[in-house]
Write a structure and sequence with these properties.
By secondary structure, the chain is α/β, with parallel strands linked by helices. About 50% of the residues lie in helices and about 15% in strands. It has helices at about 5-10, 60-70, 90-100, 110-145, 150-160, 185-200, 240-260, 260-280, 285-295, 310-320, 340-350, 365-375, 390-395, 405-420, 425-430, 435-445, 450-460, 470-480, and strands at about 15-20, 35, 50-55, 75-80, 100-105, 165-170, 175-180, 205-210, 215-225, 225-235, 305-310, 325-330, 335-340, 355, 385. This is PucR family transcriptional regulator.
Length: about 475
């Protein structure tokens, strides 16, 4: 361990004498270094935890000591018989008042002897901690060779650093913790809540959180875009050597989790094969493949959801552990068979967009897939998972609300807008009135002959006869799409 003031004063060969009460400061706090300076204000050149050695009495002892105390200086040593005999009483009083330990250094003791004692202990402590870090890292590396490598690594880490360690899985729940019982239910909830935004970000990140079990440092595991979990390590009092060991474990834990990716990839390919067999109508083949590994196929009726977005891979990982539904990757899409609650959860958690079909059975999967794809085109930021039931209820004309339809409508109606921007609105009112001039004229507040003239003008501008149903329907669709 590093030097302390108690150890420094105990060195008989140095002949140091404490002048302030033993209650002043913390005599057992580690000393970072010892430094000598007779500057009026040496604090810009000092760090907290250091010992300052002086020979020149300060002009204003109270202000001088106040600055040192506020800066976090651990102790002050005054060398006697260099500038004056004995230590000034004003300096003793100021140090006592501010709780700064003050000791007297006799003339026969050079400051370098005090500095060397502190430096030797600091160096010895650093060597000891580095040696410990090497031994701890070796023990953890050997643990990685045992069966259940991830659990063995985390357990050994907890034992070496004497702190609790927990692993939050990709699903956002605390999967395991060490030592057993060190993380209670409330602490587990706090860790899960703190890990959730890190996992949602999809990027490598770190954070901290306070719990009933003490503060924890959090570090994501896995590559950006496909995080495998979050490592939570009790962080209270961890020094640089312990943090070095934790950094090594982050790499080992990430590697252990990545080793399971091959199995996950195989399951993903199997799910895709089962899904494509279902869509092709090979239900018996799909069931025979799925049931031994993926459990039974869903029972109808169910809805088909098609989801897309950058978080599809993470969503599939989450489904593997958290949902009792059939799902599969189909190209860049994620297909889910179940109710409409799971797709909504995935969209909110992983920023996905998609659509949900009407209730269907296994025989109707191709149609349900088309419905889900059509509904996905209606998804918005406010409604990230659109329902085909809502699309069907809105009618055929609602399908005109697409960029392509608006572009075609704008081109078709451009002659009308160029001639008179009010003309499209007049035509819309006329068509809404089923082409009855008297009714539409009253709604517009104009004479029916004026309305007939405006309709005739529109026919001339568009180059088409609006007396047929087909022409009126086409114009009405363009007006609806441009609205």
């Amino acid at each position: 361990m590093p030097a302390t003031l108690t150890q420094l004063l105990a060195r008989a060969e140095l002949g140091l004498r404490l002048l302030t009460p033993h209650s002043a400061g913390d005599p057992d706090a580690p000393l970072a270094w010892a430094h000598s300076s007779d500057l009026p204000d040496p604090t810009p050149f000092l760090s907290p935890g250091q010992v300052l050695l002086i020979t020149e009495p300060p002009e204003d002892a109270e202000a001088y000591v106040a600055r040192l105390s506020a800066h976090g200086i651990a102790a002050l040593g005054f060398g006697t018989e260099v500038v004056r005999a004995g230590t000034p009483e004003s300096l003793v009083a100021a140090c006592t008042q501010h709780g700064l330990p003050l000791f007297e250094v006799p003339y026969r003791t050079p400051f370098i002897a005090v500095v060397r004692f502190v430096a030797d202990r600091v160096a010895a402590d650093a060597y000891a901690r580095n040696t410990w870090a090497l031994r701890a890292s070796r023990a953890i590396s050997l643990a990685a060779l045992r069966p259940g490598a991830l659990g063995a690594v985390l357990s050994e880490l907890s034992r070496q650093i004497e702190r609790p360690v927990a692993l939050v899985g990709a699903d956002g729940a605390v999967a395991r913790s060490y030592p057993a019982g060190a993380v209670d239910a409330r602490a587990r909830r706090a860790l899960a809540e703190a890990a959730d935004p890190l996992l949602r970000s999809g990027r490598r990140a770190a954070g901290t959180v306070g719990t009933d079990a003490g503060p924890f440092a959090l570090q994501t595991l896995g590559a950006a875009g496909r995080l495998r979990g979050v490592l939570a390590v009790g962080s209270e009092g961890l020094d640089a050597a312990a943090q070095q060991v934790v950094t090594g474990v982050v790499a080992l834990a990430g590697l252990a989790l990545e080793q399971s990716r091959a199995a996950d990839a195989a399951r993903s390919r199997l799910r895709t094969a089962v899904w494509r067999a279902l869509v092709a109508g090979d239900t018996e083949v799909a069931a025979s493949i799925a049931e031994p590994v993926l459990d039974a196929l869903p029972q109808p009726p169910f809805r088909v959801a098609v989801l897309a977005g950058s978080g599809v891979a993470a969503a599939a990982d989450w489904l593997e552990s958290n949902a009792d539904v059939f799902f599969a990757r189909d190209g860049q899409d994620l297909v889910v068979l179940g109710d409409d609650t799971v797709p909504a959860t995935l969209a909110g958690r992983f920023d996905l967009r998609g659509g949900v079909s009407s209730p269907a059975g296994l025989a109707g999967l191709p149609t349900a897939l088309e419905q889900a794809a059509a509904a996905r085109n209606r998804a918005t930021a406010d409604d990230p998972v659109a329902s085909f039931d809502d699309v069907a209820a809105a009618g055929m004309l609602e399908l005109l609300r697409t960029p392509d339809a608006r572009a075609v409508a704008a081109t078709a109606l451009q002659p009308l807008f160029a001639a008179d921007p009010t003309l499209p609105g007049i035509l819309r009112t006329w068509l809404d009135a089923d082409g009855v001039y008297d009714v539409a004229a009253r709604q517009l507040g104009i004479h029916r002959h004026t309305l007939r003239a405006r309709v005739a003008e529109a026919e001339r501008l568009l180059g088409r006869d609006l007396s047929s149903f087909a022409a009126r329907a086409d114009l009405y669709a363009a007006l609806r799409a441009s609205a």
